[in-house]
Structure of Leucine zipper with capping helix domain-containing protein:
Amino acid sequence: MPLKDYEASKQKVRELQEQCQKEAVECKQLETELSQLRNVLSEAEITRQTEEIKRKLAADEKKLAMLESNAVLITAEERAAAEKALAKTLEAWRKRRGMFRNIWGAISEDMDGKQADLFDEIGVETDEAAGADMAEAERLMPGNKRMRR
């Protein structure tokens, strides 16, 4: 191959490489644009979401209006029944908790090791592990009344 043809071929290769790089950059830009377009919601999806938000807004406005009008949401009887059920449940919790502590105290007198580790091993779920707080639950009672037997 003569030198002139070689130089011409070399020039042609450089031009083709430059063109290839330009095409690659353009391709990357088009892929980015396509990705952005795919992430955009369609008109139907936007309409559906708008309707859903409007329904939620209407329900929330209705609820707000009812609360602002000081409407009675539950009757006195329903409240009394709920308070009685809470008091009964708290009393049962307190009783069973005391029974367990008495029994556990007798069983664990001479045991070595951490109590928490043993509870984990045998599957005892404490109030703390369950995220329950007797004092916090008792504060829910109006006037902190305890149910009397």
